Amino acid sequence: MQKITLISVGRLKEDFFKSAEGEYSKRLSGFCDLKIIEVNQQQLPSNPSAGQIESALETEAEDILSKIPKGSEVIALCIEGRLHSSEELSKIIETNANMGSGSMTFIIGGSFGLSEKVKSKSKIRLSMSKMTFPHRLARVMLLEQIYRAYQIESGSRYHK
Predict the structure, then answer these.
(1) What pLDDT was estimated at residue 112?
(2) In the chain, fewer beta carbons within 10 Å around the N or the C end?
(3) 12 with 139: CB under 8 angstroms?
(4) Coil, helix or strand for 64?
(5) DSSP state of 11
(6) pLDDT (tens digit per residue) in 21-43
(7) CA 83, CA 64: separation in Å to the nearest integer?
(8) How would you label 8-46 residue by residue, b for 16+ Cβ within 10 Å and e otherwise?
(9) For 48, left (φ over 0), alpha (ψ -120 to 50), or beta?
(10) How many CA atoms lie within 13 A of 110 on its CB side?
(11) Where are the domains of the chain?
(12) Which CATH number describes the domain made up of 2-43+51-154?
């Protein structure tokens, strides 16, 4: 079974996000071995300087990089990433399942994004949209898209 790891900066606090994450985790259990890892978001003042932001991103990067499974294909979600359709994401996941380790790691940064150190380790830089979303919502959206990708691959009617 394919291994999918989701590394996310910050914790889900709202019950509705936790509930949605739980639902998609349950749905995905039939398709992959899903592991969700939360890393601590660095605390910053309300108006942080560029240096403070960079320092926080570097600290988060060290934590993120230490959690990536060995041999896993890394996909970083970032604003400058490429937009992919659901069908394209399905192909990416399917190709990974059929080649190499079959392990994929998706990384979602906090409100200030990801360090270049993390992005440079990724094979793919993925953008969810040209719009901005809270990273907690992006986490649920990503789980739904991974589920949709497996549904596309299996020929299910879920994807219309």
Answers:
(1) 92
(2) C
(3) yes
(4) helix
(5) -
(6) 999 999 999 999 999 999 999 99
(7) 23
(8) bbbebeeeebeebbeebeebbeebbebeeeebebbeeee
(9) beta
(10) 22
(11) 2-43+51-154
(12) 3.40.1280.10
CB atoms within 10 A of CB 53: 15
pLDDT at 106: 98
| pLDDT-derived band at 132, boundaries 50, 70, 90 | confident
Q: Whole-angstrom distance between the N-terminal and C-terminal Cα of the chain?
A: 26
Within 13 A of 75's CA, how many CA atoms are on the CB side? 20
Tell me the average pLDDT of the chain: 93
pLDDT at 78: 93
pLDDT value, residue 135: 84
Q: Kindly report, residue by residue over 63-88, the tens digit of the pLDDT.
A: 999 999 999 999 999 999 999 999 99
Scanning the chain, the segments in alpha helix (DSSP H) are 15-28, 50-67, 86-98, 116-120, 135-154
- Residues near 26 by beta carbon (within 8 Å), at least 6 away in sequence: none
Contacts of 76 (CB under 8 A, 6+ apart): 107, 109, 114, 118, 119, 121, 122, 124, 125, 126
